[in-house]
Amino acid sequence: TISAILVGLIVYIILVFFFSYTVDSGTLVNDPQVLLKISFLPELVIAGIWGATLSSAFGSILGAPRILQATAKDKITPKFFGKGYGALNEPRNALLLCFAIAEAGILIGELDVIARIVSMFFITAYGFLNLSAAIENWAGSDFHPEYRIPIWVSLLGAVACLVVMIQLDLLAMILATVILGALFTYLQRQELKLKSGDTWNGFWDSVVRYGLIKLKNVNIEWRNWRPNIILFSGGSYARPYIIELGKVLVGKLGILSNFDLIENTSSELLFTKAEQSVKQEGEEDEDDKGVFTRRQECRDIYEGMEVIASIYGFSGIDPNTICMGWAKHTKEPMKFAHLLKRLNELDYNSLFLNYDDEKGFGDKKRIDIWWRGGGNNFSLAATLARFIISDDDWRKAEIRLLTIKDKLSNTRVLEYEAKRVLKTFRIEATVKIIDNQDGTKGRDEIFREESE
Fold first, then answer.
1. 197 and 82 in a common domain
2. What is the largest distance, in Å, between two alpha-carbon atoms of the chain?
3. What is the CATH number of the domain that holds 251?
């Protein structure tokens, strides 16, 4: 087959050079019978045309019904066309439809018009074959052809088909593109599950691998920092509010890994494999929004969280933040305190949600950032506030920067520093300095008053 293709390619190339040196371009464009006029034996030209026509016709009339029958069996086209007859399962119903389409094209009488559209479909098929070969060659783990073509050759063929389509007939190309786009949309809505496998899985695996290799060698600037959060939800249904907070924090740019840990003190292993990656009804929506849930059975909750925080992640997209509920009623405060110390040693940003069941998140109209006047925590708080206000529900929320003035503080210095850091992070916020020089109020009391 390859030899036949190469011979045909050589013949076509020779013809191109022959016409370019023996016939002027005006004649080639305007005279459809130029071959008959310049040939030594015009009868051979007619015989060649008949041979090529019959070859294409027989190939189409034999191949098209079989393809239609196969698509009917895959539930793409009506089941009626999938029925076969005889020992060879002849697709008579599909053949009748193909015959009707071909006859309709003949009866139109304007073969040049039909040729414009048909040529586009053929060239499109060639282009997608080249593109598919390139994708399979790059990402397909089970793609092992006997004759392997370099990826760049396949891509070059796909681009060449596109250029030829534009040069031949732009209007016909647009029409063919619209028809193929409508067919693609229809097939997507059918949600077909074929046994042949899906190359896109391998394609995305290769894209992720390439991205990880790139990210591994890139130093992330603070302006490009994105939250990659490990969330210990304690159960997606038991604490849906912490899942909601996690989604808001990561937005459309971050990554949220939700660990639902189930304690089993009788387990001999810290983690068991059987309960991992188990989905419950409703969790598919979380995955679509960038929440990756993993249900894990472990011997001890606090030990499990420590191990996950120590080893979870991948080079290039290592987690940078831990989010969990504040353990107000824990029966093991020493283990909780040890976990906090360990998270600090691992250099995680730690976020703890102290949720009010009655008030919830309120009307989502205000975000308060409490600032001591120094330290590195403000950069994290300001960055997270930017992610929060990018959410539709929080878009109109007012950001307030609050700081408490004591005896050693200077109002002008505090105000200057507050405005400077807000400008650095490009955040519009209201600065409020709370005077507590006499020390009559404790911090907890001030927090409660300002949060009312």
1. no
2. 113
3. 3.40.50.620
| 248/348 same-domain check | yes
**328 shares a domain with 277:** yes
Tell which residue, 108, 19, 95, 13, has the closest CA to residue 60.
95
Number of folded domains that form the chain: 5
In a domain, residue 57? The reply is yes
Q: State which of 218, 240, 272 marks the end of a domain.
A: 218
CA-only gyration radius of the chain, Å: 34
**Of 249, 346, 360, 365, which Cα lies nearest the Cα of 307?**
346
For 148-158, letters b (16+ CB in 10 Å) and e give eeeeeebbebb
Question: Within a domain: residue 417?
Answer: yes
Whether residues 385 and 439 fall in one domain: yes
Residues 395, 367 contacting (CB under 8 angstroms): no
The range of the structural domain enclosing residue 209 comes to 111-218
Question: Same domain for 337 and 230?
Answer: yes
Neighbouring CB atoms inside 10 A of 34's CB total 15
104, burial (CB in 10 Å: exposed 0-12, middle 13-18, buried 19+): exposed
Ordered per-residue pLDDT tens for the chain, 452 residues: 678 888 888 988 988 888 888 888 788 778 878 878 888 888 888 888 888 888 888 888 888 888 888 888 877 788 888 888 888 888 888 888 888 888 887 787 777 777 777 788 888 888 888 888 887 777 665 666 767 788 888 899 989 988 988 888 888 888 877 887 787 777 666 655 555 555 667 677 777 777 877 777 777 666 667 888 999 887 666 788 888 888 888 887 788 888 888 888 877 777 766 455 545 444 445 444 667 888 888 888 888 899 898 888 887 788 889 998 887 777 888 988 998 899 989 989 888 988 888 888 888 888 888 887 666 677 788 888 888 888 888 888 888 888 887 766 667 777 787 788 778 777 788 888 887 777 677 777 887 787 77
**Gap between the Cα atoms of 217 and 112, Å rounded:** 56
Is 229 a member of any domain? yes
80 and 102 assigned to the same domain: yes
The separation between CA 94 and the C-alpha centre of its own chain, rounded to angstroms, equals 37
Question: How far apart are the C-alpha atoms of 248 and 360, rounded to whole Å?
Answer: 14
Backbone angles phi, psi at 185, to 5 degrees: -60, -40
CB 388 within 8 A of CB 420: no
The answer to whether residues 339 and 421 belong to one domain is no
